[in-house]
Amino acid sequence: VQLQASGGGLVQAGGSLRLSCAASGRTFSTISMGWFRQAPGKEREFVAVVSWSGGSSFYGDAVKGRFTISRDSAKNTLYLQINNLKPEDTAVYYCAARLVPGLSYKVTGYAYWGQGTLVTVSS
After folding, report:
1. What's the first-to-final CA gap in the chain, in angstroms?
2. pLDDT one-digit tens code per residue, 26-42
């Protein structure tokens, strides 16, 4: 599975962005996909995960109510809508895929990773 993330940029606090992650390769067997982020000097942090059907999802506490994860199976693309951005959301955002059943919020639960897209929020 190859993942290509895009959509990051420089945004003012309170603004919005939509991140995309295009998947290719063995996408037919992908079970669930997620977003993580890593701020400078910090560990990679869980953001959100969605099942392959799109019927199940859950979010990290820091982003609940502001972030929405979704997927378009016909386009093999994962999305992350980010609203009401805060300076503490500044990070490199990574998409990831796992090929085993069940949703996971752990970095170790994902075998495939995109290259990351940088989101910078100015105050």
Report:
1. 37
2. 776 678 999 999 999 99
